[in-house]
Write a structure and sequence with these properties.
The complex is a heterodimer of chains A (353) and B (350). Chain A is of the alpha/beta class. Chain A is built from ten helices and eleven strands. The longest helix of chain A has 18 residues. In chain A, 48% of the residues are buried. Chain B is an alpha/beta fold and 350 residues long. An eight-stranded mixed beta sheet of chain B has the order 6-7-8-3-9-10-12-11, sandwiched between helices. A four-stranded antiparallel beta sheet of chain B has the order 2-1-4-5. In chain B, strand 4 and strand 5 form a beta hairpin. In chain B, helix 3 packs parallel to helix 6, helix 4 packs across helix 6 and helix 6 runs parallel beside helix 7. The radius of gyration of chain B is 21 Å and the shape is globular. The chains are: A alpha/beta (353), B alpha/beta (350). At the A-B interface, helix 5, helix 6, helix 7 and helix 9 of A face helix 6, helix 7, helix 8 and helix 10 of B.
């Protein structure tokens, strides 16, 4: 494909960090009290990194992504924090300034992207539309780049002339990803792009995204509720619960040694197709209503290791070895020099018993 | 006709049995001659206290099978037997009502299956009034409380009053099962009962099903696209592809030694954090053709073992191991020792 489409903005020197989110808070304005859907979320994404963002419905994972892309609706508001992306703080950018970034440097693949295509326009026309909205390109270049991105995602360029209904679900999803790739941005946010697909199509799409990422070097935030799906694809994992990131670390690290009780529960909630059959418990209770979040640690009403301190104050972010962050009092003292390590370990042993 | 449950020793006769079950839909305009083969020649049997899983991707016909068994659709061909009695012979409303009481259905979406303006338990009361007329007012209330407890909605005195908006998805789905239980069914047809629920609460609902089998002697047809959950809960499994049964057998046998190439593909696609990543994903998961499929194996377009006969003859289910059946020419050839020169699906355990 001879380097087409060209990597936009690649001549600018970049440091290793693509995106840095600092203490982000997002609130939804409802009838009575505002609902804090994202609370004090901080994360750093490096160039070409694949971050898996995992959580259940209502945990704020989609809200976080929309906030990063500045796509929140009128009823939501970024109340505090910063989003640093390509040298700018996105929180303070105006719509007009954002337009220069979107698609070219940051693109979003929406959930149920299958239905996000316009049914009365051909795939090619929609790709062209996106390209013309963000760049002045000659018609031939538009056509050429359209077929190049379709080829990238494994769709025959003949489908430039196809309408969405002529494509299968998996192909529509690929077409949406192709659209996000037209300018090869630095960051692509994917909000559950595979949740409407069957397992075989799902897996094939994941492999494709991973290959494209290796080839083109963009960073990915991949949102999913299915932690097992991204086990083999993401570099780092962030696990969200009730608006907070409760654990973040290297994917292997989190899988092999989940620290937060919620992560443990989540990983233990998947029956396996191999190994001995055993009765699994899942996590008792259900996720909290964010209009009335539990006091202290938001997971404490469902936690089997709950201690006296948990309901009193929200746990700070601890950094035990190998993890970027764990919000759980079990790890008090790990990585925070001022607390006595042994005391904390005793407490953990006690709690785990 | 060979049926899928030969070598499984069982004393009791099946509660519910389908033979040659077929459902075609006419598609396109009124002059269209196109036919969608949603379900073709499916045999299945559910025995007392048995959990049978049907696994397949969207469009495989698995939900249509459940709807046929529930009497929502009339089969195009084939017959459903309830305690050996053909469903098509049940003419009276009373007989059908009795059948519907014995064979209940639980639906996929617990958010749209409860009426928001009534307490969630209203459906249980109604089912009791309809199917168990012998119960008086107080006995009915007692029975509702008992049923709520059996599906884990405790304290039941609180849950009997709750409205749908006060409930989480997992709790709503438990009401779905409670409603089905009211008529004291022998069999519950559960159509993707957990796929709309969050992962942390799916297990709770699956465990309710296992518990109901143990405590209330209910058998289940569990319809799912999640093969791991099928293994977790079911005794036997039917893998469906394009309206036909591709493979059937005891769930452990099929998962340990899948013989049909589709079952093998499905198993290889299940995300497994414990397995090494295999990036040879040649198959893009394109959906099968079920409109006017014609003769020949419906999986042949995606099959790596396709041989000449696959284009001409639709493979029938044939034995490939003790109690295990697969609809595949290549697998059947291997099973009877006609090892052909072509590549055979690896029959060994994974």
């Amino acid at each position: 494909m001879a380097g087409e489409p060209r990597v936009e903005g690649s001549s600018v020197a970049h440091e290793a960090t693509v995106l840095e989110v600092r203490h982000l808070g997002v609130e939804y304005l409802t009838g009575d009290a505002p609902v804090r859907a994202v609370d004090d979320v901080s994360l750093i994404l490096r160039r070409g990194e694949f971050l898996g963002l995992v959580g259940e419905s209502g945990c704020g994972k989609s809200t976080l992504c929309f906030a990063i892309a500045r796509l929140l609706g009128d009823n939501a508001e970024i109340t505090d924090g910063e989003i640093l992306f390509s040298g700018k703080n996105l929180v303070h950018l105006r719509e007009k300034q954002l337009r220069h970034l979107r698609w070219r440097e940051l693109s979003v693949v929406m959930q149920s992207a299958m239905n996000a295509l316009n049914p009365v326009m051909t795939v090619g026309a929609q790709l062209a539309d996106a390209m013309r909205a963000h760049d002045k390109l000659p018609a031939r270049e538009v056509r050429k780049r359209g077929s190049a991105v379709l080829e990238l995602v494994g769709i025959d360029p003949i489908h430039l002339n196809s309408y969405p209904h002529q494509l299968s679900g998996g192909m529509r999803q690929r077409a949406m990803i192709a659209m996000a790739l037209v300018f090869i941005p630095d960051l692509i946010i994917m909000d559950e792009p595979t949740s409407a697909l069957d397992v075989v199509a799902q897996r094939s799409l994941m492999v494709q995204v991973k290959e494209l990422q290796r080839e083109l070097g963009f960073a990915v935030i991949f949102v999913t509720h299915d932690i097992s799906l991204i086990a083999r694809f993401s570099d780092r994992l962030a696990i969200m619960y009730a608006g907070e990131i409760v654990e973040m670390g290297g994917t292997r690290q989190v899988f092999e040694d989940p620290k937060h009780p919620y992560s443990r529960g989540l990983l233990g909630a998947f029956p396996s197709i191999r190994g001995p059959k055993e009765v699994l418990k899942g996590i008792p209770g259900s996720p909290p209503d964010l209009r009335h979040p539990p006091s202290g640690c938001r997971f404490h009403p469902r936690c089997q290791y709950v201690m006296d301190i948990c309901p009193t104050a929200p746990p700070p972010a601890y950094t035990p070895r190998g993890n970027d962050l764990v919000r759980c009092y079990l790890y008090a003292g790990r990585g925070t020099p001022e607390t006595d390590m042994e005391e904390a370990e005793d407490r953990e042993r006690h709690a785990l018993r | 006709m060979p049926s899928a449950e030969i070598a499984v020793p069982r004393a009791a006769a099946p509660l519910l049995e389908a033979r040659g079950l077929t459902k075609h839909f006419r598609v396109g305009g009124i002059f269209s001659r196109h036919t969608l083969h949603a379900v073709d020649q499916v045999d299945l049997a559910i025995h007392p206290r048995e959990i049978v899983a049907i696994v397949g991707e969207s469009g495989s016909g698995k939900s249509t099978v459940a709807r046929l068994l529930a009497g929502v659709y009339r089969p195009t061909a084939g017959e459903i037997f309830h305690h050996g009695r053909a469903l098509s012979q049940m003419r009276s409303r009373r007989a059908m009502l009795a059948y519907r009481g014995r064979v209940q259905m639980v639906f996929q979406d617990p958010y749209s299956s409860l009426n928001p303006v009534y307490p969630a338990a209203r459906g249980i009361f109604r089912a009791l009034k309809l199917h168990r007329k012998d119960l008086g007012r107080d006995a009915r209330r007692q029975e509702v409380l008992r049923i709520l407890e059996s599906v884990g909605l405790t304290p039941s005195r609180e849950f009997i009053r709750k409205y749908p908006h006060e409930l989480s998805g997992g709790q709503r789905q438990r009401y779905g099962f409670a409603q089905a239980l009211a008529s004291r069914p022998e069999t519950i047809l559960a159509d993707e009962p957990v796929s709309m629920l969050d992962v942390s609460i799916r297990l709770g609902v699956l465990n309710v099903m296992a518990e109901l089998r143990r405590q209330e002697d209910v058998s289940f047809l569990y319809i799912t696209h999640d093969i791991a959950s099928a293994r977790y809960i079911a005794d036997r499994i039917l893998v469906m592809y394009a309206g036909q049964v591709a493979e059937s057998g005891l769930v452990e046998d099929v998962l340990a030694g899948p013989k049909h190439p589709y079952t093998q593909l499905l198993l290889s696609a299940v995300p497994d954090p414990r397995a090494e990543l295999d990036v040879t994903a040649a198959d893009k998961g394109e959906p099968p053709r079920v409109i006017d499929p014609g003769e020949g194996c419906r999986f042949r377009w995606r099959c790596p073992y396709r041989i000449e006969i696959c284009d001409r003859v639709t493979p029938a289910l044939s034995p490939v191991g003790p109690g295990q059946m697969a609809a595949c020419h290549v697998a059947a050839g291997v099973a009877v020792g006609e090892s052909s020169a072509t590549a055979a699906p690896p029959a060994s355990g994974r």
